[in-house]
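Hi all, long-time lurker, first post. I run a small reading group and we've been trying to get comfortable going from sequence to structure in the token notation. Rather than ask abstract questions, I figured I'd post a concrete chain and ask someone more experienced to write out its structure so we can walk through it together at our next meeting. Sequence below, copied exactly:
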Amino acid sequence: MIPRSVFEHSLLHLLAPVRAFLEDDAVSEVLINGPSQIFIERRGVLERTDARFDSDEALLAVLRNAAQYAGKHVDQDNPILESRLPDGSRLSGVLPPLATSGPYLCIRRFFQTRLTADGLVESGTLTDEAVGALAAMVRGKLNIIIAGGTGTGKTSILNWLTAFVPEGERVGVIEDAQEVQPQHGHAFQLAARQADEDGRGAVSIRDLFRASLRMRPDRVIVGEIRGGEALDMVQAMVSGHGGCLATLHASHPRDVLTRLETMAMASDIAMPLTALRLQIGSGVDAIVQLSRQRNGQRVLTHIAEVVDYDAQASRYELQELFCREYGHAENASRLLRTAAYPKFAARMLEHGARWPFAQGDRS
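-- Answer (accepted) --
Happy to help. Here is the structure in token form:
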């Protein structure tokens, strides 16, 4: 068996044309559209580079080596690859003819530096009030969905929030590929596995979620909800597993709930839609919405409470606790706390946490 270190060395050698970008802390993504078209995202802004690979074959060599490094297989029968680089960065690749102008690669950088409250406030992502509210919500064992588009910082905020989980609790982390870095002393992490070349050995997020509930977690974290595991998570939320955290792709808090519905209905369990909506309305406590502004800055736009599902009106009841207000100047915005007082404040007290603002008080 070839030692893992050999794959690490050869993979980094094959990536030599973009190695400088992979060592630049200002670069968050490297986007390779065939050998002669390479873009990077630096400080949230896309720019084209002069970097080049010699040929399609050079990129194919990167993908094959990355697949071997991750114990996977990529070829014409398996043309899509999700893998990791030695530093933990995520690599996604697609082979021709699915990729129409040569092999495509996207490398999402892995950063060792952890977010801090001071850093998030200084960058304008959050305010001191929002930091206090989110810390209390996590300590109060609320079920929170972190939502946003691609590259809005969902996983980074999720990692940061885990620091507020009380030390006496056990945290289970479930994901497709290891990206979550829990800032907590007692966490176990489970990663899904694809089927082998013969279609055997697959272990899904749903399989891991069910297994994790038998491993005595006080909280369960799902790196990203993508499919039928949405139903398992919602049912766990309403059956006593408080403090769940997860990320999900959605552009607005209300879209989060409809996306949860859609993914839950993709499971193999048939459930009346009204019953599903009632469970979602009861299980999810809050939504943290993130966005990326035109200048590339990643910001929090909403903290919204999911109050309930109104079956008569066929709609979810949400109330905004924080909302970002936009000015006339480009990229001018500020995050404001509303006058709303959350109904979940009473339940937070059961876990020794308190909503940090008085009822009727407004920023």
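A couple of things your group might point at:
The chain has a mean pLDDT of 90.
Residues 56-69 form the longest helix (14 residues).
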